[in-house]
Amino acid sequence: MSLDADVRLRLGALDLDVRIAAPDGALVAVLGPNGAGKTTLLRALAGLVGLHGGRVSVDGEVWDDVDGGLHVATERRSIGYVFQDHLLFPHLSVLENVAFGLRARGTGRDESRRRALGWLDRVGLADRAGDRPRALSGGQAQRVALARALVAEPRLLLLDEPLAALDASTRLEVRADLRRHLAEVAGIRVLVTHDPLDAIVLAERLVVIEDGRVTHDGGVAEITARPRSPYVARLVGVNLWRGRADRGRVTLSGGGHLVLADPLDGEVAVLAHPRAVSLHAEHPEGSPRNVWPVRVDGVEPTGDRVRVHLVGPPDVTAEITTAALAELGLDPGREVWASVKATELDAEIL
Fold first, then answer.
1. What does residue 298 show for φ and ψ, rounded to 5 degrees?
2. What is the CA radius of gyration of the chain?
C-alpha cells in the first residue's frame, strides 16, 4: 500500500499546497500551529473537501485528479476517520456505532456485529457493547471511535487530534493503547496533532505544515536535531536563530548578534539548547563571547528544572535549576543578562 497526495486548495484565508507521500505501514504525524491546514489536509484526503489542484492516490488507485476531472466520493474511499470529538452516534449502542461503517458498505447485520464485537474486545470494551455513548468516559469513547475506524480494515486511516479532548492521566493511558493498536493494523496512518510528544511516541515520520506549506518532512531524530523554523524549535525545545554570518559574527534577522566558534560566512541557522544558556543578575565576567541584556517574559516548570522565556533581542529560552530561579528572583519583567559560549552554538549554512 502507498499514499501519494498532492493537495492544493483554497478555503477562506487558507491557501494549502502540500505534498505528502507514505509507504505501506507508515505512521506519519502532521504537526503545525493552529490554522496551518492540518485538519483541512485530512478532510481533503477523505474527500470531504474538493481540491482546486493536484492528485491523490492510494495503492495506485486514484481518488482525486483535478486535471483529469476525477473525484471519488468519500463513501467509496477505503478510509477510516477518527475525529477529535469522537462523533459517536448518541442514539446507537456502542456495538452499533462500531458496526455502522460496515453496514453502510453493505455488509450483513450479523457479520457486521460479529466483526464489531471482535474490535470492541481488542480495545477492551466488549462488556460495554450494549451501552450508549453517553455512558462512556472520554478514553472509552475514543477507543470506540478507533474501533469504528479500524473495523472495515481501511487502506488509509486518518486521525485528527485523537487525544486532544482527554485529560492528562487518561491521555497517557489512551496514547499507550493507541500505539499498540496502530502497530497491529496494516495500511497507511496519518495522525494530526499539535502535541510533539504524541507525534514522537506514535510516529516514525513527521511532516510539519506552516501557513499551508510543508516546512519539514523527515524522521523524528532528524527533525528534532535540526529544526528549520522557530515553530519547530519551540516544539522540540531548542533556541533557533537565523541571520547572516561574516567570519563567524552573525547579525540576526530579528535583531542582535552572536559570535560562533567557527568563521562561517553567509546565511546561517544557529541553534542552542536552553541548558547552554546562563543567566546572570549582573554582566558576567569570564569566557562567554555572547552576552546580552534580556527581560523575563515567563517561567515554565519542566521536571526538576524550569524554562525561562526571555525577551532580547535576541529572544532566548534558558533552562535552569529551581535554586537558580529563586536566587535570581526571576519574576516576569525582571531584567537580567543572558550568556552562551560560542562553542555551545551549533550553526549551519542555509
1. 180, 160
2. 24
Max avg pLDDT among 59-73, 239-253, 283-297: 59-73
Q: How far is CA 112 from the centre of its chain?
A: 34
**CA-CA distances (angstroms) from residue 296 to 15, 285, 306, 308, 311?**
36, 21, 13, 7, 6
What backbone phi and psi angles, to 5 degrees, belong to 125? -130, 25
Tens-digit pLDDT profile for residues 251-278: 998 899 999 998 989 988 888 889 999 9
What is the grid cell recorded at 129? 457493547
Cβ–Cβ < 8 Å for 334, 281: no
Residue 349: CA count within 13 A, CB half-sphere: 8
Look at residues 218, 156, 155, 194 and name the one whose alpha carbon lies nearest to residue 35. Answer: 194
- At a CB cut-off of 8 Å and minimum separation 6, what does 104 contact? 75
Number of neighbours of residue 326 by Cβ within 10 angstroms: 10
Looking only at the bridges linking them, the beta strands covering 278-280 and 266-272 are: unpaired
